[in-house]
Amino acid sequence: MSFVTVDNVFQSYGTRPILERVSVEVKEGEFISIVGASGCGKSTFLRLLLAQETPSRGEIRVAGQPPAREPGLDRGVVFQKYSVFPHMTVRENVVAGESLRRPWGRFFGKEKVEARKRADETLARIGLDHVADAYPATLSGGMQQRLAIGQALAARPRILLLDEPFGALDPGTRLSMHDFLQDLRRDTGMTVFMVTHDLSEGFKLGDRVLVFDKPRWDPHDPNAYGATITYDFDARNGGIPYQTIEEDTHVLRPA
Ligand SMILES: Nc1ncnc2c1ncn2[C@@H]1O[C@H](COP(=O)(O)OP(=O)(O)OP(=O)(O)O)[C@@H](O)[C@H]1O
Ligand SMILES: [Mg+2]
């Protein structure tokens, strides 16, 4: 059964189409990697899933419902950088990850104590319990990004959205982040959407790799058309394409 359903979604900014005819069905627990040229609308797609934006046309449903407009407890998000608060300790960052998604924004009294306890559980899970009282600036890049993921996980989301989460990390740290993410996913059964510029990372971590591209291209006006999902690769099966979404024969590309 489809958990996340994207049904014929279009998104434009002003008169400029960014995404067109995007449709995909994702089962709960699937890991979806997203690749595509810079500027083709991958982050826009994540913002739509996050309900930070509403599509110009089409519909997105999560567990059969339209995703709530308010930042919900069901979706957590991690960006490439700058997603942790430098003036808060590691523990406070994780507590903030949960409290920011609440309508009134803060915890008080007993609730605060419980939130700190949950934060410590999250920190143990991401291996940062020994630096709970440190400030992010004192952590390595890999630890900071693990903290950002911990912050997103604090509210136990069913969907984790990752926008090039490891892009700023060195290759060794990146590999250990892959192990971390794979363990986390095994433990939580979360549904993950991850944008990456690294194809091998996409195939290694993903169950499926979605390629965003522009099937229609006007050489005189490269912004005339939006991007869509042109391939949906089964990455569990050695990366054999099992579905070609677009069969548009009017594709015109620059030589
Ligand atoms: N709020 C906005 N208003 C107007 N244009 C926007 C807005 N957000 C994004 N765009 C434009 O939409 C296009 C798609 O942007 P998006 O950030 O989704 O691309 P991307 O695939 O994530 O690129 P990258 O790989 O570089 O991160 C870009 O041309 C961008 O300039
Ligand atoms: Mg982007």
If strands are numbered along the chain, what order do they take across the biggest sheet?
5-6-7-3-8-9-10
Largest sheet: 7 strands, mixed
Query: Care to count the β-strands?
Result: 10
Spans with pLDDT under 50 lasting ≥5 residues? 248-255
Total helical segments:
6
Radius of gyration from CA coordinates: 19 Å
Overall geometric form: globular
- Protein structure class: alpha/beta
Mean pLDDT, rounded to whole units?
86
What is the fold-level CATH name, i.e. the topology of the domain at 1-54 and 173-255? Answer: Rossmann fold
Q: Architecture of the domain at 1-54 and 173-255, according to CATH?
A: 3-Layer(aba) Sandwich
Main CATH class of the domain at 1-54 and 173-255:
Alpha Beta
Distinct bound molecules = adenosine-5'-triphosphate, magnesium ion
Please give a quick description of this structure.
By secondary structure, the protein is α/β, with parallel strands linked by helices.
Topology of helices and strands:
Layout: E1 2-13, E2 16-27, E3 31-36, H1 42-49, E4 57-62, E5 75-78, H2 90-99, H3 109-125, H4 141-153, E6 159-163, H5 171-188, E7 191-195, H6 199-205, E8 208-213, E9 228-234, E10 240-244
Helix pairs in contact: 2-3, 2-4
Residues 42-43, 163 line the site of magnesium ion (MG).
Organism: Thetidibacter halocola
Keywords: ATP-binding, Nucleotide-binding, Transport
GO molecular function: ATP binding; ATP hydrolysis activity
